[in-house]
Structures are given as C-alpha cells and as structure tokens.
C-alpha cells in the first residue's frame, strides 16, 4: 500500500477516515492535504469536503520488508516475512519451503542478503537500526552447532597441549565461539588474520 485518499467534512475527519482504513496511528503516517474544505454559497450550496492523502512513514523496518518482498517475488519464492521491531534492532524471520538457496554455504548468502538489506533500509534515515535476518531458524541451529564445535575443540587443545586453529568465520560466528568459551580457565581464545579470512585460535593455558 503506497497511500490512501479520503475525504471528510474537515481535514481532521478525513485523516481519521484514512487511519481507520490503513490501521496505523497518527505518528506512523505522513499527511498531505489535497483540498481544504469549503462551505460553498450561503454556507451550504456547492460545499466541498476536505481531501487528504495519507501514507505510511518510511522507516527501516518498512523499507526492509519492502525490499525483501521484492527479492522474494523476483525469485518466485512463496514466503512469510515476520518483522519484529525493537529499540535498537529489527528482527526479521523468513519462513517457507525450499529456502536453502537463500541461506547458502554456511549462511554466506544469508549474510550477504542481511548486509544489503541493512545498507538499503538504513539509507536516508535519522536513526539507524541493526537488522538481523533469519531463515527457518537457521541462525539458532548454526549457533548450537558452533557451540558444540567450540567445546569439542577446546577439549582437544587442552588434551594435546597446543593451539587449535578454526576455519575462517564472520564476526558474528567468531563472537559465538568466544562467548561460549569465555568461562573456561584452562584455555583462551583470540582472533587473527584479515577479513574475510579472520579465524579463531583456541590455545591452552600454560
């Protein structure tokens, strides 16, 4: 929906009529008065109602949804997009059949999609919000897998008494590994290398 146009005896009444149709609050809309009301001859003959055009304000959440809907339509994918807006971030969950193509190898396609949506949705906005996109619960499953891997390799580093080097990961996945092992007192973790080949080292404490 781009906008609705509604009339009323007054501008205020026309706006209220529009709000009822688009189901938004006054803070969420932009109002353009197309015609001011006029009383006409003798106060009633040929009178003209007020006419307003009301459209939703452009927000990062709405722009993100619109972009994703366009991408899904272009790819001919039947999906449900659930947007949850919080103070500093926007969580977007995409569900539907056969969405592996949107996830890619180890989430690379999903990360690229998330990056592009962040750039586009936060363009020309006063308050930038971090947008996190998940598909069919992939990120939670990946997090669980990374935690199990972290525990296993930490034990390996301790038992063998030497460093274990993980494969390159993005910053989000590295943070999961660091956080999972930060409570251990027998090993420590650090990152080295340059993006996108930066990797985690699990080292035993001497």
From TrEMBL:
CDD domains found in the cross-reference section: KH-II_Jag, R3H_jag
Its biological purpose: A probable RNA chaperone. Forms a complex with KhpA which binds to cellular RNA and controls its expression. Plays a role in peptidoglycan (PG) homeostasis and cell length regulation.
Classification via SMART domains: Jag_N, R3H
Domain observations: Has an N-terminal Jag-N domain and 2 RNA-binding domains (KH and R3H).
Organism: Desulfoscipio geothermicus DSM 3669
Assembly mode: Forms a complex with KhpA.
Organismal lineage: Bacteria, Bacillati, Bacillota, Clostridia, Eubacteriales
Predominant location category: cytoplasm
Entry superkingdom: Bacteria
Stretches for region Jag_N domain: 5-55
GO molecular function: RNA binding
Listed GO CC annotations: cytoplasm
Similarity annotation: Belongs to the KhpB RNA-binding protein family.
Subcellular location, record wording: Cytoplasm
UniProt domain R3H: residue ranges: 140-206
InterPro entries hit by this protein: Jag_KH, Jag_N_dom_sf, KH_dom-like_a/b, KhpB, KhpB_N, R3H_dom, R3H_dom_sf, R3H_KhpB
PANTHER family associated with the record: PROTEIN JAG, RNA-BINDING PROTEIN KHPB
PROSITE patterns documented for this protein: R3H
Full protein name: RNA-binding protein KhpB
Keywords linked to the UniProt accession: Cell shape, Cell wall biogenesis/degradation, Chaperone, Cytoplasm, RNA-binding
GO biological process: cell wall organization; peptidoglycan biosynthetic process; regulation of cell shape
């Amino acid at each position: 929906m781009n906008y609705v146009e509604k009339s009323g005896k007054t501008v205020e009444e026309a706006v209220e009529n529009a709000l009822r149709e688009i189901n938004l609050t006054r803070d969420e809309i932009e109002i353009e008065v197309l015609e001011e009301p006029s009383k006409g001859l003798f106060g009633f003959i040929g009178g003209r109602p007020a006419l307003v055009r009301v459209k939703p304000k452009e927000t990062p959440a709405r722009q993100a949804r619109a972009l994703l809907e366009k991408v899904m339509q272009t790819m001919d994918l039947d999906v449900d997009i659930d947007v949850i807006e919080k103070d500093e971030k926007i969580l977007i969950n995409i569900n539907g059949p056969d969405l592996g193509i949107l996830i890619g190898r180890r989430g690379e396609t999903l990360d690229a999609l998330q990056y592009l949506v962040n750039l586009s949705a936060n363009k020309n906005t006063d308050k930038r919000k971090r947008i996190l996109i998940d598909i069919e619960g992939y990120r939670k499953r990946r997090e669980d897998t990374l935690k199990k891997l972290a525990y296993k390799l930490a034990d390996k580093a301790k038992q063998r008494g030497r460093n274990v080097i993980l494969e390159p990961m993005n910053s989000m996945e590295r943070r999961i590994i660091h956080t999972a092992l930060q409570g251990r007192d027998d090993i420590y973790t650090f990152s080295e290398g340059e993006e996108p080949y930066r990797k985690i080292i699990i080292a035993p404490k001497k």
